[in-house]
Amino acid sequence: MEELGAYTREAGNIGEGLAFDLCVGLSGSEGSTVLVLGGSLYFWADLLLAGRMVVFVYRDKNTLKYVRRQLKQLLSDRQTVDNQFRTVLRPLESDMSDVAAAASVIAVVGVLHHLADPRAMLAQLLGTGKPLVVLDTTSEIMSAGIAREKRLHGLAHDEHMTCEKAAAAVGFNTKKDILELVEGKDAVRWPQAFEYQLTSGWLAAWEGV
Prior knowledge:
By secondary structure, the chain is an alpha/beta fold.
């Protein structure tokens, strides 16, 4: 696979590389808007470098300020961040129809398993009629990743333990649970999903055009 953006060079997150590639392809031309829930600093930065406008939604004002500062440091370019990166302060399970209206594509990266009702959120986003890129995980996948970490390093990352518990709490226990979520009646337009192996072993799925 070709290296896609800063995260594959710096962080090795293949899943976000795939999500980035899909967002760029589905959004069309430079200047189009990607509505983002979740993701990482490298993911947002590479969307900006690809000429996309990014609208990032989160529920905490301090986190939004921190993300903006970190992006400016990473890119060494205040103007790009000021011109192309917009933040929206609101709960992640709110109505997103107003911010989705101007978006060419919506990316939900590593967020669904942390929500109280991920199925309702996914149904809402699919209802916007916009292409949707989803990257998520299950408790089974996280358990396998944690076991590998303990075997290799003697301990596991705290965030992986948190994700394992969160995925179990919302019922994302096996690969089948995620596939049923994206292939269900509220997501009839999803043509494909796939799993890849990484330290934390995520499952990626997306809507085609």
